[in-house]
Amino acid sequence: MRTTSVDVVRIATKGPGDVSGLLGLIEQGKIDPKSIVAILGKTEGNGGVNDFTREYAVSALSAALAPFIDLPPHRVEQRIAFVMSGGTEGVLSPHITVFTRDSAANRVSPDISEKRLSIGMAHTRDFLPEEIGRSVQIRETARAVAAAMAEAAIVDPQDVHFVQIKCPLLTSDRVEAAAARGNKTVTNSAYGSMAYSRGASALGVAVALGEIEGEIDDEHVLRRFDLFSSVASTSAGIELMHNVVIVLGNSTSSAAPFEIGHAVMRDAIDSTAVIKALKSVGLHIEDGSGPPMASRQLVNIFAKAEASPNGSIRGSRHIMLEDTDISSTRHARAAVGGLISGLSGTGAVYVSGGAEHQGPPGGGPVAAIARLSTK
Amino acid sequence: MRTTSVDVVRIATKGPGDVSGLLGLIEQGKIDPKSIVAILGKTEGNGGVNDFTREYAVSALSAALAPFIDLPPHRVEQRIAFVMSGGTEGVLSPHITVFTRDSAANRVSPDISEKRLSIGMAHTRDFLPEEIGRSVQIRETARAVAAAMAEAAIVDPQDVHFVQIKCPLLTSDRVEAAAARGNKTVTNSAYGSMAYSRGASALGVAVALGEIEGEIDDEHVLRRFDLFSSVASTSAGIELMHNVVIVLGNSTSSAAPFEIGHAVMRDAIDSTAVIKALKSVGLHIEDGSGPPMASRQLVNIFAKAEASPNGSIRGSRHIMLEDTDISSTRHARAAVGGLISGLSGTGAVYVSGGAEHQGPPGGGPVAAIARLSTK
Amino acid sequence: MRTTSVDVVRIATKGPGDVSGLLGLIEQGKIDPKSIVAILGKTEGNGGVNDFTREYAVSALSAALAPFIDLPPHRVEQRIAFVMSGGTEGVLSPHITVFTRDSAANRVSPDISEKRLSIGMAHTRDFLPEEIGRSVQIRETARAVAAAMAEAAIVDPQDVHFVQIKCPLLTSDRVEAAAARGNKTVTNSAYGSMAYSRGASALGVAVALGEIEGEIDDEHVLRRFDLFSSVASTSAGIELMHNVVIVLGNSTSSAAPFEIGHAVMRDAIDSTAVIKALKSVGLHIEDGSGPPMASRQLVNIFAKAEASPNGSIRGSRHIMLEDTDISSTRHARAAVGGLISGLSGTGAVYVSGGAEHQGPPGGGPVAAIARLSTK
Amino acid sequence: MRTTSVDVVRIATKGPGDVSGLLGLIEQGKIDPKSIVAILGKTEGNGGVNDFTREYAVSALSAALAPFIDLPPHRVEQRIAFVMSGGTEGVLSPHITVFTRDSAANRVSPDISEKRLSIGMAHTRDFLPEEIGRSVQIRETARAVAAAMAEAAIVDPQDVHFVQIKCPLLTSDRVEAAAARGNKTVTNSAYGSMAYSRGASALGVAVALGEIEGEIDDEHVLRRFDLFSSVASTSAGIELMHNVVIVLGNSTSSAAPFEIGHAVMRDAIDSTAVIKALKSVGLHIEDGSGPPMASRQLVNIFAKAEASPNGSIRGSRHIMLEDTDISSTRHARAAVGGLISGLSGTGAVYVSGGAEHQGPPGGGPVAAIARLSTK
């Protein structure tokens, strides 16, 4: 029996503080603000430590949604999971994707046979600065992933296609706070800490989904890149101290008119994987090589990008890691964003940088959500 | 009768001053330094005004080749056309493409029926700073394109698939020199002048190939973007005051085991055009949708990229023109480079930024050279 | 008779959205929120077109102050003039300076003889995109400056020491809106429009204060750099379409325990001018060359910085205008910020970039506010 | 008895490859190319890993000087110490400082009583990638400093006022080479390795000059910032694998018409130290506070700049370490360059970034060379 349904809406934004598109859909009755469970967004900052577009977007969304859900702005974030990924380099286009969930009672069509899109959320406790990027973060994240799967009514890890995590980073203040307690953080660099936090969080997903076996400890983070999750997508932000976990997958308990699938890019130019992810949900690229599946429509693509740590891609040297002017995460988002946008026909896709332990080194997961024909 | 042949070799570089790959091939007898007519390179600078990797690469190549061709280093550039395009953002990989040309007498196979790759070169006189970006530059460039076509033994403009031009830019010194003569340059901005010079040069190609009709004057440059060439690729550099023109096309007089074709990207995410360019020379993308043509091998792709001037791509807003941290040319190269690399399977492709009047607004030409089976 | 008083408080911020310092002072009774007339801030964005830290700061301040002044957040800006200048490069430290004004009745000491700090505000009507950077903006700004002087009870232009203006810029949308009406904006470049808007606004100040004579027209903006105001400081922001004018000077009607003075930096390394501005309000640099004036204390310095348009400073070439990686405004703020911070002993100074028509080419005004001993 | 003399000439450059100024002085007989021992330059790259302006400048200088000293270009560097420091942010102006040394026999004036400028050079062996940033580099550097002091005929460490070192950095290739030998480098980050190499080299100076006592080991590098040299200035470059050491000080054996002195900036805004360094060689700032010493003339200032590692300067937060768009070394050079240029009246000063263990945390050495009246 289908018990819940999920709706997914992609909305273009005119700036990090722009909530007009969302408010318009609420006013038109197309989105019920009380049913919003998560908003994933691409904002146009640098995606680095000093990217304030993420917290600005969250602040604007919180202020806008607060009156609708009877909460003060600062408490909205406790109810809705906001994941703002900074960086819309190249052809990428700023936007938000709004996920709602509610009881499916009154809209189940009797003939659904396949699993459909389902979403589950959970979060960890706040971390101490010295816990970030280490095994505590891995362990707590794994626990939260399991909780989110349960909430999504997904039993088989194979049905999990994308796990988005928002995780904290270190700042000078936080490093000093740890030092004041006599503890050393995993790095003193704010920028460097983002990689550690993303990496540990991704390893937490891999542990939860059984993608890696055996003990994981501190030493594996950012070193054992052969250990990774094929569906993890983690973003670090200055605005929180805990991990927020969003599990996206397909479930028999969902009556949603959406399906999600994924593939793994083995490197940043893996067009085959992007095409495979599209095909997994019945979509194809528009080069005329295949028949259109008219009843399917792309909602969004979610992918991770990174510069391959060994400095080359299929034998050709890249310069992303040795550029002092543009951070490698910006380079990688721009390139992978260019490929995915070209294959999907739109720049309004979610490509996020920093894929440590998210897919193989230099690669990353790519998931696609398709809307099914609703006649 | 086939009278000339052309060879094209792509060589990876370890830095802008690295000539070891080229010297190695010369020493192995695979490249005859006396037959080199042009070298197109991607160097790893920012591609902007202060990108010194271009002149450094030219300086290193000149010093390396001088002893082989009995010229002092500073005169090598008069014999070999060097076009270094700065900027290998994202997955793009620094490399040079060496074009040689010689008499085909001793290697013509009797059964060639199609036209084959041919190359021709010419250059304009030095421009005054106040001529850059204006009709004088357009007119002189058109004249040089015609001369280069003749040298390549190409009669039909339809057989021209790529026209690479290196053109000058303005610096503070040059602007002041014009002012001292009582003349005003088209802009005072060094960075801005690169666009004017590229645009006027591209319009020169369009005039020469009959792609646009009627009078072209100063006012059209960077304003009438509906006027463009489908095969022009122009790069501005601080190191010269004239235009260098390289025409690449197919000719019945060539015995080269290469073919060139092109398509026009209508925007920066036009995967269809990239695939079309590949197919035009018998190549396909590796997604399993078509049979491999085993006898064909990609040598290189040459493309232009730019941020669409109207601020959006297929209706989605891009942020390239409003980013104060990364110039729009870097954004565009990274994105288009990501797409082309993904479709061709390598980052060692020539994607150059700033496509003013080179293809439609926001788009640009994409040419592919394939090596034919030589068995 | 002294009729008003002004208070000036500099508050460090931990990020663009941080209002905790201001709220703390309000809670301690040190700042009466109802008396706040203007807040000038330095935020840590790039200071360019896509610097969202400015609007984020304004949004956060508006939300924080709204309950205290019985206005909804979006109307706070109509009562309090917020001027956020983006860019705290180098040693510059993010902070806000809060100006309050109220009736001086109950705190006038009978023995004041000199003029004291006074503040006046005014704003223009909204501009059309095509009016920005042109004579309409100059004329309307001049009118607003006169109004603000009157409000500050300053009669003699010599008593005006700093005129801060916040002005609009062009975006792709705004350029298109003008085009849709059949009108051409002064430039299509968002970044370029910031200079035009700052320049026209500064010329408006010069007109109002009688610093330039004769007709000013469109052609003078960004061309006749010999026309300038010695006290204008203008910043462009994406968040408004009108000019906000804040006049700071000394007036006999003020009972404030502050004095303001200024000097004009003739170039970006004019330490003499900085020292002169400090001395004008009884302050000195701490190199031991003069006696301390114990009764005076620096509140803040307000200065403009720019790369000299001719490409050199006192005969030495600078690279600010030819750097494609870092905009010249960021370079200039970092350098002038380094000098002023070194001479004043703190990085929490207000140095704003883009000094077109604000001081001589390559230079800019530098004003200092000192607090007098209050025993 | 004075046995040697030194000449110091500062020459402006028009670009990293510009050697015209130097060649002009050689042709005019003002510089004897055979007597050149060292050239310190500021080039206009980003000063980071991918700053190719340094090696381009060395390449151009080597090619230009080779014919004069009867060496092939690639061997010139073995005779002349080239130290190119990348990054001329803000008001800094690209230039080179040429040091020559020869027998003083024919120009000693009999009445010299004070010590005069002397220069000595030495270099270490090539390092393995895994030795960079560790105690081996410290120890070998200390040995080279002692050798350079001996060559400069400086006995008392107090007479050493500036020790410039050029040191290697890690690249992806070098990290992999070490890994292939089973060894781990101190970091995998190319950018990060620059700090390690600079830090270890500076500690080597401190050891040689007795500035620190006790054992120094690997763990102290980039951690014990209370250990530092007050006269070390170290720059990392991709173009070498050994350390080049240049000692500048005053010696009784020198007959040079120059004197050098130094002070230590305790932070990046320490104007007092800059003024002190100028005064130590008889110079003053031009604010009218002291009498000019007509017989003295500034030749150049040599200083190091860095972002204070604790994130603040005299209690005010700076954003240099948390900016993903501009590296902290660029921020710091721009700011300190602004201060020193303002106090010395010229942007053609040598301010180099990355002051790890060079002066106290956030500070750095500042040395000044003055030319004495030669009448």
Automatic annotation (TrEMBL), chains A, B, C, D:
Source superkingdom: Bacteria
Annotated site residues (Important for substrate specificity) in this chain: T329
Ligand binding (Mg(2+)): E306, A355, Q358, G359, P360, G363
EC number: 3.5.2.15
InterPro entries listed in its UniProt record: AtzD/Barbiturase, AtzD/Barbiturase_RUA, AtzD/Barbiturase_RUB, AtzD/Barbiturase_RUC
Subunit structure of this chain's protein: Homotetramer.
Its biological purpose: Responsible for the hydrolysis of cyanuric acid, an intermediate formed during catabolism of s-triazine based compounds in herbicides such as atrazine and polymers such as melamine. Catalyzes the hydrolytic opening of the s-triazine ring of cyanuric acid (2,4,6-trihydroxy-s-triazine) to yield carbon dioxide and carboxybiuret, which spontaneously decarboxylates to biuret.
Designated name of the protein: Cyanuric acid amidohydrolase
Species this chain originates from: Bradyrhizobium algeriense
The organism's taxonomic lineage, starting at the top: Bacteria, Pseudomonadati, Pseudomonadota, Alphaproteobacteria, Hyphomicrobiales
